[in-house]
Amino acid sequence: MRYTQLRAFHSVALYGGFSRAADRLNQTQPALSDQVKRLEQAHDTLLFKREKRNVYLTEAGAGLFRMTKQFFEIEDSIGEYLDHSSATVTGSLRIVADSALHVTDAISHFRQNNPKVFVSIKTGNTKEVLARLRNYDAEIGVVGNMQPASDFTAFDIGRAPIIAISAKNYLPNGRTEIAFKDLSKWPLVLRETGSRTRSNIEEAAQAMKVPMKPIIEVDGREAMREIVASGAGIGFVSQAEHNHDERLQPIKITGIELEMVETLVILKMRRDLPMIRTFMRSVREVG
């Protein structure tokens, strides 16, 4: 196994094909293909499924790709360490969050101090956020009510009660409160499985023996808001995430205390990366 073979494999997996990888590495496609083939032959393992002009990672290839992400990330860190004379970091910072609301100040502070860094922000539920972090597809995650996990370091960055929301005048007589035990009497709009807001509601319902079955399940917070605003039913959000949409009525849930704790999470084995350390410094400074 040679470094050049690993680099060839990693580039094909990263860029999604031999042609694109060859362009990025400034190599010919046959030379790149030969490096990958030699790696497969040396270990008698098929790493890509080749179908006409497309290639797909096999199970073994996907496992190796997770390892090469770590390998080349360490290589990049070594370069950054040796070039530490620079006061700022460069490159890309990938953030994936169920809601970026609680880190907007930190992102602004980070960008002011590190103008050469490109920041990308993607959304996802807790399950998706943790999966992206574990697959090295993001450096920073933000989730609600994080459950303990041995491979993550977690930092609480905010907390707020969970409230119900409905379309304006959806509840009769201008009501702005609803008992938790009465929620099952109303049409409920819940987010997808994997949402911590949904999990909190369902866990509380199970503990109180309150039936809690949605009539509509929707993928994503914004889509849920739109469905609720149309008058289709009652949804749930953290009070901090209620964006004062004039179409929506916040509703206090009585009879139980439901709280969403927003948590910033990073993989323990990546916490010493210069990019992550620098962002965490911004979080502490604006905290």
TrEMBL record:
Pfam families: HTH_1, LysR_substrate
Statement: the UniProt record of this protein carries the keyword RNA-binding: no
Domain annotation HTH lysR-type: ranges: 1-58
Transmembrane segments: none
PROSITE patterns: HTH_LYSR
Keyword Transcription regulation: yes
InterPro entries documented for this protein: LysR_HTH_N, LysR_subst-bd, WH-like_DNA-bd_sf, WH_DNA-bd_sf
Highest rank taxon of the organism: Bacteria
Protein keywords: DNA-binding, Transcription, Transcription regulation
GO molecular function per UniProt: DNA-binding transcription factor activity; transcription cis-regulatory region binding
Database matches in PANTHER family: HTH-TYPE TRANSCRIPTIONAL REGULATOR, LYSR FAMILY TRANSCRIPTIONAL REGULATOR
Family: Belongs to the LysR transcriptional regulatory family.
Name of the protein in question: Putative LysR family transcriptional regulator
Taxonomic source organism: marine bacterium 01-004080
